Amino acid sequence: MSNLTTRELIVETADQLFYQQGFEHTSFSHIAGAISISRGNFYHHFKTKDEILDAVIRLRLAKTQKMLDQWEAEGKHPRERIQSFIQILVMNKKDIKRYGCPVGTLCSELAKLNHGSLVDANALLTLFRTWLRKQFVLLGREADADQLAMHVLAFSQGVATLANAFKDEKFIKNEVNQMLDWLKRCEENMSSSESASAPELTGER
Fold first, then answer.
1. Distance, CA of 34 to CA of 10 (rounded, Å)
2. Do residues 162 and 93 make contact, with C-beta atoms less than 8 angstroms apart?
3. pTM of this prediction?
4. For residues 152 and 133, what is the distance between their CA atoms, to the nearest angstrom?
5. Nearest to 51 by CA among 79, 76, 31, 70
């Protein structure tokens, strides 16, 4: 982070602390202390925590879009791109086990607080939904692309929540493998609406 401006450093640090500690339990002092800046310098950039939250959400949206663009560029086939989304659970399994999904936990917390930024935070989920829907359309599942996109989103949020609750990395790997099998069946049965249903839980735990 050495090349970041002070403002950018505050936002990056707040992003991490909101994820690890929660928005409500992260104070100005926590953020300022983590990057060793004075309160005066801090307040020069942000007057309220809600201003920081808005900046964090914009940062997450930008990072998410960059990640999706990278998957688009690297994945030659829509199946490969959807696989990248599913496998991110395994890539981030240690953080997910400790803190859950950064998107889901923030949206859930803001919903409980009835916070005005909930709509903006939900835009992160909408970004994933829109992108996944596009990939399923390209996969030949135009008729039920949105349903399938929502199924993959529900899968990822559910696995992250349970992995965090039970602190179980093996559970993440098992569920991801089953979801990849389900995705393969989706492609193999493009003309069948049956593959839009939940995956059969036949794998060993």
1. 9
2. no
3. 0.89
4. 10
5. 31
